[in-house]
Design goal:
The complex is a heterotrimer of chains A (about 400), B (about 350) and C (about 90). Chain A is α/β, with parallel strands linked by helices. Chain A folds into two domains: about 230 residues, Thiolase/Chalcone synthase (Peroxisomal Thiolase, Chain A, domain 1, 3-Layer(aba) Sandwich); about 150 residues, Thiolase/Chalcone synthase (Peroxisomal Thiolase, Chain A, domain 1, 3-Layer(aba) Sandwich). Chain A has twelve helices and 15 strands. With about 350 residues, chain B is α/β, with parallel strands linked by helices. In chain B, strand 10 and strand 11 form a beta hairpin. In chain B, helix 2 packs across helix 5 and helix 8 runs parallel beside helix 9. The chains are: A alpha/beta (about 400), B alpha/beta (about 350), C mainly alpha (about 90). The interface between A and B is large, with 68 and 61 residues.
Chain lengths: ~400, ~350, ~90
């Protein structure tokens, strides 16, 4: 089977506006969580969020993106997309070629404009410039137009594992000969919609989230975007290669709309299917970037599934303690962090952890480590039981 | 390339159960709304939480799931999936000023709700994904199924699409000029096409269509030869792409018997359809289907359901015909659709 | 309000709030568990019922775990409402 390699990356999150800034923050164990400042909400000082401290207007200026109806979500995506293209050194002809795919993912889309959308959804209001942007597809559509892309352009959703599936779909397009390269990733911005939604489910933490800690109180939402450029190894002679994508999977827990089964059947199947595709034994996984939302349900179930599959769990941590849960972007941002782990042969300190979960005893990596790494797994699980795992391997 | 073995469709027409597509149901209040069955196959405890789009999607999928072993995956295209619950939740946020809100609308607002509910109801742990890319959402679901079957030739997949006319979606589309301002009957929809004398917009529509697909030829209703997509505003480039598509995928020595198009009465989009019609030979029947299901992002799934019905029964209802050519047999059907003039799809379906 | 009257009203409110289409108030027994067996409600329903208690009776329950002790059956719910209602 063709080896799919990563030749470019771009990311923006609460701990940095570029790949280099994100890595520097990860090395230091920076926490990007804090008060919500970019839009008014009753919860702005009550619930910490991983917010990118650049206003939407400043993003428009910086990116020279002044089209009518453009939203913060699209701007964040553009920011990361642009960096990934520059990094991979794709020419504009290559980007617009019919064999270049763009696969995006978002769970919020233009709904970051919660109040505007509410107004536009009423019968007798005139309708704002944002109506076409509310759709999830509007982000990929914008990038397609801006870069005159003629290849397959798609938008995927599997809730909080959406962008892991965008990566997977892009890789499969290449393997099936439907694209030569794929720019894949995801984006979400903070929104009153998601803050109130997760709050209604009582799974937002009033403090900075503490993944895999006995006393965890829930998740913090975050915003961000990440895109990576996937190509076939045989096509990229001479280019720098960060890592290869050696395994991926999508499995369904089919237990409950918003929580995982006690034994973690979905997470277990996702992890073991990805290993099978990569032709790896569990013992060959050196590190897992866990889904680790810090909700009571997820961290317990994910731990159980890891113990079931690996016997003794490999080194793991959750970067959601640094940037929050970025929903549709989470799979892509965390995949990018795994690629950094491999490219730099280093592990980043998991932060905010104090006490292991009773009866499970798993402790995330808590100190920076320079270490030889061959294979790394990234887990992403979502509402509706949508569980996915990706495996990246050393270039 | 894959084979379609069984189909199911809940639409504004008589397509569910004992289908009769010769009868044409008409729109009410400028909307072609689905004729919903009683959903006896969905447990009431589950049905109570489903919004219309989830209900229609799951309802259309159930007959296929009852007649087969578990599929190896569930692949759904939807652009509006979950949106109605989104707005219901938005309304709560505003009405209760970010106060105590009920989470059910939020949980059901995720656009993967249709695919995941089907998975949950049938305890399916396999591949489960939703493609949302507006007017190409179903095309990418088909592409996904096609790749899955290339990767796993012995597998079976539930493939389908669903969109509904929820109230706010109707307002969004209406406010941005995609529905006709004047009242129009679906019997005269295409008369409003011409650029000079016609009017912009179409009729709002909705439907759910589901397909049982695999790689086995024996017993298949139809063969999905190929699907391709394009984002483009220039009709001459669209036409070139269609020519390339036919050249690449129509089996050597065979010809197109029927062109089924997504013409929808919008006078701004007629140029794309005329341009694509000009690609095919004069002895090809041309038919249309949007007067049956209205305009919505995944309408090509209804189109594919109709292709299967036509191939099975070798009959096209008169109300669909634009250019009649007497045929002894319909074998190869080419479907061309465009969504809002920027998203184009090309689908080739063949019978035995 | 009499307790029996409150219970009848509560049953109607639960049916409407949770959209229990095939259930009538007579189907819900006062001492029948609302969760698991019985009505077969789940964790999302428990949060929905906490919101119902808030909107209709002005009762604030911050911790969903506390909710589980109140939302056992119609008897426990009615009892809690009588003691804590603010409207």
């Amino acid at each position: 089977m063709d080896r799919i390699v990563v030749t470019g990356m771009g990311v923006i999150s609460a701990i940095g506006n570029t790949v280099a800034e994100n890595r520097a923050s990860l090395v230091k164990g920076t926490c990007g969580l804090g008060s919500l400042e970019m839009f008014p909400s009753k919860f702005s000082t009550l619930l910490p969020v991983g917010e990118i401290k650049i206003t939407t207007e400043a993003l428009k200026e910086k990116l020279e993106a002044h089209e009518r109806g453009i939203t913060r979500t699209t701007l964040l995506a553009l920011h990361a997309f642009k960096e990934s293209l520059a990094d991979s050194q794709l020419t504009s002809e290559q980007v617009s070629s019919s064999d270049t795919a763009l696969i995006g993912a978002s769970t919020v889309g233009g709904m970051c404009l919660t109040d505007e959308m509410h107004r536009d959804a009423q019968k007798d209001t005139p309708g704002s410039e944002y109506i076409p942007s509310y759709d999830y597809a509007s982000i990929s559509m914008y990038l397609q137009q801006r870069y005159s892309m003629n290849g397959p352009v798609n938008t995927i959703n599997t809730a909080c594992s959406s962008s892991a599936n965008a990566i997977m779909f892009g890789a499969r397009l290449i393997r099936n000969g439907r694209a030569k390269r794929a720019i894949v990733g995801g984006v979400d911005s903070l929104a009153k919609f998601t803050i109130n939604g997760f709050n209604a489910l009582h799974i937002l933490s009033p403090d900075n989230c503490t993944p895999f800690d006995e006393d965890r109180k829930g998740l913090n939402l975050g915003e961000g975007a990440a895109f990576i450029v996937l190509e076939k190894e045989e096509d990229v002679a001479g280019k720098k290669i960060y890592a290869s994508l050696s395994g991926y999977s999508n499995a369904n827990d089919s237990f409950h709309a918003s929580s995982l089964s006690d034994n973690g059947d979905g997470p277990y199947k996702a992890m073991s299917d990805a290993l099978a595709l990569a032709k790896l034994d569990p013992s060959q996984i050196d590190f897992i970037n866990a889904h680790g939302t810090a909700t009571e349900n997820n961290d317990k179930v994910e731990s159980i599934a890891m113990l079931r599959l690996f016997g003794k769990a490999p080194a793991f941590a959750s970067t959601k303690a640094n940037i929050g849960h970025t929903l549709g972007a989470a799979g892509a941002i965390e995949a990018l962090y795994c690629i950094l782990n491999l490219a730099e042969q280093e592990l980043y300190p998991g932060i905010h952890f104090k006490k292991p979960i009773t009866g499970l005893g798993l402790e995330p990596v808590q100190a920076y480590k320079k270490i030889a790494l061959e294979h790394i797994m990234s887990n992403s699980f979502g509402f509706g039981g949508n569980c996915s795992s990706l495996i990246f391997s050393k270039a | 390339m894959f084979y379609i073995h069984q189909t199911s469709c809940i639409s504004p027409q008589h397509t569910f159960g004992d289908a009769d597509i010769n009868k044409l149901a008409e729109p009410a209040e400028k909307r072609l709304q689905a004729i919903e069955p009683s959903y006896d196959a969905i447990p009431p405890g589950v049905l109570r939480r489903m919004g219309k789009v989830v209900r229609m999607g799951v309802g259309a999928a159930m007959p296929l799931l009852q007649n087969h072993p578990k599929p190896d995956g569930i692949i759904i295209g939807t652009a509006t999936g979950g949106k109605d619950d989104c707005v219901k939740f938005l309304n709560q946020i505003i009405e209760y000023d970010e106060g105590m809100l009920t989470p059910i609308n939020f949980v059901q607002s995720t656009p993967n709700a249709v695919a995941s509910q089907i998975g949950l109801l049938t305890k399916n742990h396999g591949y489960n994904v939703s493609h949302l890319h507006l007017g190409l959402a179903f095309e990418f679901a088909m592409t996904d199924a096609d790749m899955m079957l290339n990767e796993n030739p012995l597998n079976n997949y539930l493939l389908g699409a669903v969109d509904d006319i929820c109230t706010h979606h109707y307002y969004f589309e209406d406010k941005t000029g995609w529905y006709k301002k004047e009242d129009v009957s679906n019997k005269t929809l295409y008369e409003t096409n011409p650029a000079a004398t016609g009017s912009p917009g179409s009729i709002a529509g909705e439907a759910a269509a589901m397909f049982w697909v695999n790689g086995m030829e024996a017993g298949a209703v139809a063969k999905l030869q190929a699907v391709d997509t394009l984002h483009q505003a220039d009709e001459s480039i669209v036409k070139e792409k269609l020519q390339d598509f036919i050249e690449k995928y129509l089996p050597a020595g065979e010809k197109i018997d029927l062109l089924l198009t997504g013409e929808n009465g919008d006078n701004r989009l007629l140029k794309y359809y005329s341009s694509c019609e000009s690609v095919i030979k004069e002895d090809v029947t041309i038919a249309r289907f949007k007067h049956m299901c209205g305009e919505y992002p995944t309408a090509t799934a209804m189109g594919l359901w109709l292709c299967c019905d036509i191939l099975q029964h070798q009959h096209i209802p008169d109300h669909m015909i634009k250019n009649a050519v007497v045929k002894s047999r319909y074998k190869n059907i080419l479907m061309y659709n465009n969504y809002k003039g920027v998203q184009h799809s090309f689908i080739l379906v063949s019978g035995q | 309000m009499e307790t029996t009257e409150l219970k009848e009203q509560l049953k109607k409110q639960i049916i409407e709030f949770l959209n229990l289409q095939s259930v009538s108030p007579a189907d819900i027994k006062d001492d029948e568990p609302l969760f698991g067996e019985g009505l077969g409600l789940d964790s999302i329903d428990s949060i929905e019922l906490i919101v119902l208690l808030n909107r209709v009776y002005g009762i604030v329950i911050e911790d969903p775990k506390e909710g589980r002790r109140i939302l056992v059956d119609i008897n426990t719910m009615a009892d809690y409402i009588e003691k804590h209602r603010t409207k």
